[in-house]
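Internal QA ticket QA-208
Title: Verify multi-chain structure generation after dependency bump
Assignee: T.L.

Test input:
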Amino acid sequence: MSDPTHPGAPVLEVADLSVTFGSGPSAVRAVRGLNYEVRPGEVLGIVGESGSGKSVASMAVMGLLPPHARVSGSVKLLGTELLGASDKRLAAFRGRTISMVFQDPLSALTPVYRVGDQIAEALTVHQDLTRAEARKRAVELLDLVGIPHPAERATAFPHEFSGGMRQRAVIAMAIANDPDVIICDEPTTALDVTIQAQVLDVLRKAQRETGAAIVMITHDLGVVAGFVDRVLVMYAGRPVEIGSVDEVYYHPLMPYTMGLLGSVPRLDQGERGRLTPIDGNPPSPAALPPGCPFEPRCRLAVPECRLAEPPLRPVRHSRHLAACIRAGEIERGVVTTVPKLPEIPEEGEERPPRESRRVVLGVEDLVKHYPLTRGAVFKRRVGTVEAVAGVSFDLREGETLGLVGESGCGKTTTLMEILKLARPQGGRVVVLGRDISGLVAADRMSVRRDMQVVFQDPMSSLDPRMTVYDILAEPLRAHRVREPGPRVRDLLRLVGLEPEHAARYPQDFSGGQRQRIGIARALALEPRLVVLDEPVSALDVSIQAGVINLLEELKARLGLSYLFVAHDLSVVRHIADRVAVMYLGRIAEVGQVDRVYDTPMHPYTQALLSAVPLPDPVVERARRRILLEGDLPSPADPPSGCRFRTRCPLYKAIGETERLRCVHEEPRVRPMGGDHGAACHYAESLDVV
Amino acid sequence: MSGHVTLPDEQLAEQSSPGGVGVAVPSRGRVVARRFFGSWGGRAGFALLAVMFLAAFAGPLVYPWGYTDKDFTAFLTPPSPSHWFGTLQTGADVFAVTMRGMQKSLVVGLLAALVSTALAAIVGAFAGYFLGWTDRVLMWVADLLLVLPAFLILAVMSPLFAAGQWPLFVVMLALFLWMVTSKVVRGMTLSLKEREFILAARFMGVSPTRIVFRHVIPNLSSLLVVDATLNVSAAILTETGLSYFGFGIQPPDVSLGTLIADGSKTATYAPWTFWFAAGLLIVTVLAVNLIGDALRDAFDPSARRAR
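Actual output:
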């Protein structure tokens, strides 16, 4: 196999890599025969869902697995075998020829040493440098990865860095010795989209500088589309498809890849198609089916699939491999996986226009400030965190409002203020026509009945000590419904679970099923408004699609209104009718979802949307990114006037006199046609998706 | 809004058929009981404790000797068919007094442990969940009891326990056992309170008291069961200690503590005066520990055993 685009001998060759934990019948075969190679300057993406073995494989390559893991096969770095090599020998390679960028940048840096010293240490371990030289080089590296005032920041400790800056520092450390291979294990998963865009940009720059090959491990199909040359799809510990990113995305040959691509909501597609979830759950690595591990979930499965595990073999040409006995048929177009999907039931006849529908939830100038105190015995107030600083929006009957923003923008605080049903510090919250500040106990109960919530983490939102029956019966009992039994059974059916599941505990279910139980609990009292706090962000893509479909179906069938809080802009585009973008405790832009996504007016919305990677390689490569500088300012000390001006690309482009207005005058959300509004003095539309 | 959830006809038919309704959903109590008796330790501990209770309460009814009777023909005789566990120096029957002592010790130990653990759970959970004044007052009381010399107060109060007032003794014992646990419970409640399932219950309209009893305390059950188990031993030993010094259980009544205290003097040349009482104390604590372990596993759905 020769690669026309990346000539030269492979720098990293992985052959028949297997990793097994434990032994005997309970042995977990986490990786089962992984083969790949990367050449200088090439970027290989390894994608797969949680539990597919992608991270374990990369740890095995680095020799970082615990001793009880049994690793076999071969890992050759520049022709030298790494498997079985002594730690001392490996140490000569690690950091010098091969380096790694981890997911969690906080735990990748030692908290008690200065960042600059840690980078300098990475240098002096492998190079013969004096302390001063190493320090100087560390500052250069920090400058290279885009840390402002690098000389000053080099003396800071990791906890003084924000998440994005820490990840930059880790990248600086990874490229310090000009390695030949950089393994990135989910390098941007813990970061917000605008920071993710910055970090990916830094990684690209780092690759250009060093000419290294990158192995990019991620579950985000959008990141892969724009960043990698070749992609390897893993499922149940095995590679199931390898090929160039264009071929795999546009002509996938393995039903799993097809399913994965079909289940991702797209930022650039507005129409209300149903997503195609993959049925079922990934198999447990301790109990794999005898045949193709994907067979139980595959829409194209035939009886032969159950006989033996199909090998990975070339299909279209020597560089596109797939592990499916029907790959040939798929390639010729004889069969496709386009499934017949149950249509979303139509929502009655034509919905009345928005203005004439009832306001289910009205929020006006909501304020929530937290006092910032210091001192253990005598608490003094040293400042105020303005978590929510005057937020207004309304949600009408039968509508989904997406509340989006990056971490720290105040979206969760807004949600909690609404759900608490207590008098807000400032402003008004009106639920179903009732102002929550004047509620008496009985009214509060009836509002609670109409407004329910689904949380993000399906593990912690269900009491582990209660059976599913008790969990679902709890809201019914709290509102004095007699005989919850039949209702519990209906609810389980409604969310696609079996009534027999009622006797089990939450831990017996997978993440997607648990989230369904959470949804069933929220629907138990037939509410009219459901507040969803990141309901799908903890789930894998293929599972996520099923839950999104369920939410859409329930909304249409039961006439619900959703307040949908999320940081994933693609999911919001898919599910929401209207969207409100928050930045630092304020609404930046609000309007119809298609209008906001197609013609965003606020510079922040524009930057946010342009930062979201699309799972479409050609489009993704052609896109122009608006990179925001720096991090979110602290909500304890927000900038005067427009809160976005410190990072605003528009602010930099306008003249001195116009800038004065941004500094001194707080922009209100002003109408930009229809119910579309943006909080910017100089808003203009820009096509970014 | 009702009526939006429409079910197809076949589902309705399924519902009205008797088989459809029969989704067996056991209550939490029954699940815990099944899992408790499904484990070896649970069965053994329960059987052991049941036998001891039976022996302590039913034994004296069929045994010819009462605990106040004296056999003036047999002083300090080893076990024999007429005196199963032998006799004391006074001619009292060891079996009779041991059973009488066990009655007291079992009741006092188990009750004091249950009361103190329940008190710790409730005080700690309420203080941690409500915070504010509830917390301040409850923790102030706990701190106050921590600094009071428990042994001294019990000793001073001992005349009150004389005339069959053992329930008061149980309460007093429990009152000095709960403080440390309640502080632990309070701390755990603080972190539990932020968990999403508690928030979910709150936003559902479940009353705060109900949340404490249905969500907070069951999720601390592992800690509480272990604590109760330890408290049984602690209560029995405290009672033993008090009785040894002549406080606590007053003569002519006896407890395992007074028996061990008396028996230890003659243990070297008349082992039966000491070892039966001491052995039964050990067996009691062992049975309680077995039950505690099994209960902890039964309460915890993620425990691997007993499933």
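Spot checks passed. Chain B has a mean pLDDT of 81.
Status: verified.
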